[in-house]
């Protein structure tokens, strides 16, 4: 019986009068929850992903994340998720959660799979330092890359010769005479992964990465994330070619589909 039905049955003019007589005890509330099936309807299972690579490599034993709770919009690697006092905030907020390679693949976030591109990450085939570039660039594009480095919070170091300097304005650097001392911008988009930008040409943004630092699915994801960040910011392709070759791009960020795609075919086995 609802409050208003009880009001009509008792002949009260106001529901406030009815509320005065209607006392809700803990036992009554518990019974109402049981009758409504509240607990049954709010109990659900949570899928847990296991990173087998982390387990088999021993990384899990070194306290690296190895299991991930699927929250629907991301993954949480807190081992005792069911006891976490913040779990409802994680479940309700749209937040970016830390993701392992296995979690990224399960969630459809991986642009390229290691088993499909391993030949393009082989230093013996590609050269250790493949060339990556943005064609048809402008001074404004260079400045947007510098701004992106600051905004993303990547570690960076700008130097002129052997002198480390503050990050400059792109127009000032690119206007320097050809005989000026060489400048470079070192950026670490992830721990242990270095990209070196050469600020020499107004019409092309180029930089190097070391393939020896980008092995396995984690390395592929790191490179894809980096290329996607730059390409999305500029709205332009970011292409990778073997070291010393400027014609045959093997992979790159495609601004049309907003992801990194293969542009060349791996050699047949």
Descriptive overview:
The chain is of the alpha+beta class and 269 residues long. Helices cover 35% and strands 20% of the residues. The protein folds into three domains: 3-41, no CATH class; 48-106, no CATH class; 114-262, no CATH class. It is built from twelve helices and twelve strands. The strands form two sheets. A nine-stranded antiparallel sheet has the order 6-5-7-8-9-4-10-11-12, with helices on one face. The chain has a three-stranded antiparallel sheet with strand order 1-2-3, with no helix packed on it. A hairpin with a 2-residue loop joins strand 7 and strand 8. It is elongated and about 95 Å long.
Q: Which regions have little confidence, pLDDT < 50, spanning 5+ residues?
A: 91-99
The number of distinct structural domains comes to 3
Q: What would you report as the Rg, rounded to the nearest angstrom?
A: 28 Å
- Strand composition percent: 15-25%
**N/C terminus separation:** 75 Å
Element pattern in H and E = HHHHEHEEHHHHEHEEHEEEHEEE
Helix content: 25-40%
| Tally of helical runs | 12
Mean pLDDT: 80
Q: What class would the helix/strand composition place it in?
A: alpha+beta
Q: Tell me, what's the shape?
A: elongated
The biggest beta sheet reads: 9 strands, antiparallel
Strands, total number: 12
Q: Describe the strand arrangement of the main beta sheet, using strand numbers.
A: 6-5-7-8-9-4-10-11-12
Quick tags:
single chain, alpha+beta, 3 domains, 12 helices, 35% helix
């Amino acid at each position: 019986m609802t409050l208003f039905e009880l009001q009509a049955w008792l002949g009260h003019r106001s529901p406030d009068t009815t509320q005065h007589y209607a006392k809700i005890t803990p036992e009554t509330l518990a019974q109402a929850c049981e009758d409504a099936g509240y607990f049954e309807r709010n109990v659900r299972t949570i899928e847990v992903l296991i990173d087998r690579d982390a387990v088999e490599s021993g990384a899990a034993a070194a306290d690296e994340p190895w299991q991930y709770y699927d929250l629907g919009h991301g993954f949480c690697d807190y081992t005792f998720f069911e006891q976490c006092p913040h779990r409802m905030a994680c479940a309700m907020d749209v937040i970016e959660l830390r993701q392992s390679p296995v979690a990224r693949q399960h969630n459809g976030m991986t642009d390229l799979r290691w088993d499909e591109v391993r030949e393009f990450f082989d230093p013996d085939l590609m050269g250790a330092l493949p060339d990556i570039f943005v064609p048809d660039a402008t001074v404004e594009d260079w400045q947007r890359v510098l701004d992106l480095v600051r905004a993303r919070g990547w570690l960076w170091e700008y130097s002129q010769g052997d002198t480390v300097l503050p990050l400059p304005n792109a127009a000032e650097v690119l206007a320097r005479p050809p005989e000026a001392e060489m400048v470079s911008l070192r950026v670490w988009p992830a721990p242990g992964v270095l990209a070196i930008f050469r600020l020499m040409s107004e019409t092309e943004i180029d930089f190097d990465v070391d393939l020896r630092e980008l092995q396995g699915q984690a390395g592929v994801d790191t490179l894809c994330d980096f290329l996607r960040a730059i390409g999305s910011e500029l709205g332009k392709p970011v292409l990778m070619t073997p070291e010393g070759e400027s014609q045959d791009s093997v992979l790159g960020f495609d601004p049309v589909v907003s992801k990194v795609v293969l542009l060349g075919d791996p050699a047949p086995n």
